[in-house]
Amino acid sequence: MIIAVTSKDGEVFQHFGHSEEFTLFEVENGTVIETKKVPTNGQGHGALADFLNIHSVNVVICGGIGGGAKAALREKRIEIVPGVTGKVDEIIIKYLSGEKIGNPNIECNHHHEHGEGHDCGSHSHTCGGHCHN
Hints:
By secondary structure, the chain is α/β, with parallel strands linked by helices. Helix content is 20%, strand content 27%.
């Protein structure tokens, strides 16, 4: 199984469609056997589903994500765990231990500009009315 986490500076990156890199975790029998960071090379939104499919990703853990990206990932049969915040290394441990992380109802409207410090995945941030949970 391969789990991809949107990442930047060791934290879960909060805008799936603008992800510059993913941390990929290869998991076998509930244990991480390989970790690598993979740059997206500027691919965004819908193209990221193909990018993740090429890397044989089974699960995506992210912050905010729009409906179009969710649909593209589901079409590739990639499970989505949205609404996640925190350190990537801690989040993967929580996920593998079965702890509930994120908010499956988070959905961002991509037709707005993200201001400095914007955090679509945060449960306490309203996302300026653009993320719905």
